[in-house]
Amino acid sequence: MNQIPTPTEIKLRTTSRVLEIAFDDGARFELPFEYLRVFSPSAEVKGHGGGEGLLVTDKENVGIRGIDPIGQYAVRLNFDDGHDTGLYSWSLLYDLGRNHATRWARYLERCAAAGRPRRV
């Protein structure tokens, strides 16, 4: 059975708008707030039918007001646009960090295809 890496450090960097997270396997990621918001695990974003989920746009300047720990397995991110319903498990945060470049490239493709290019 594979052990899920667990965070050893989580830092909210509000000026640079990144969540810095280090894991016990040595991995360290800097996850932009916008990236975390558009890939929220909430039903509102993911939808209920599988697939890529809802395309969330116009979040270039979103902030995170706070982080709430959820047991020993996740955090809830409180975004300043009012979104706070997704639980970011350790495995999801690790996956978002490890696959950041691929996921972000696909997001930008989806934005362009929908005629909603990023504003910055």
Descriptive notes:
The longest helix has 14 residues. The strands form 2 sheets. The chain has a 3-stranded antiparallel β-sheet with strand order 1-2-3. It has a 3-stranded antiparallel β-sheet with strand order 4-5-6. It has a domain of 81 residues: NE0471 N-terminal domain-like, CATH 3.30.2020.30. It is 28% helix and 28% strand. 16% of the residues are buried. It is of the alpha+beta class.
Task: Describe the structure concisely for a colleague.
The chain is α+β, with helices and mostly antiparallel strands and 120 residues long. 28% of the residues lie in helices and 28% in strands. The protein is built from four helices and six strands; from the N terminus they run E-E-E-H-H-E-E-E-H-H.
Low-confidence stretches: none
CATH topology of the domain at 33-113: NE0471 N-terminal domain-like
What oligomeric arrangement do these chains adopt? Answer: single chain
Question: What integer is the average pLDDT?
Answer: 92
Q: Describe the biggest sheet?
A: 3 strands, antiparallel
DSSP helical segment count? 4
CATH architecture of the domain at 33-113: 2-Layer Sandwich
What's the arrangement of strands in the largest beta sheet? Answer: 1-2-3
| DSSP helix fraction | 25-40%
CATH class bucket of the domain at 33-113: Alpha Beta
Any idea what the radius of gyration is? 14 Å
Structural class: alpha+beta
- Calculate the terminal CA-CA distance, rounded to whole Å: 43 Å
* Envelope shape: globular
User: What's the total count of β strands?
Assistant: 6
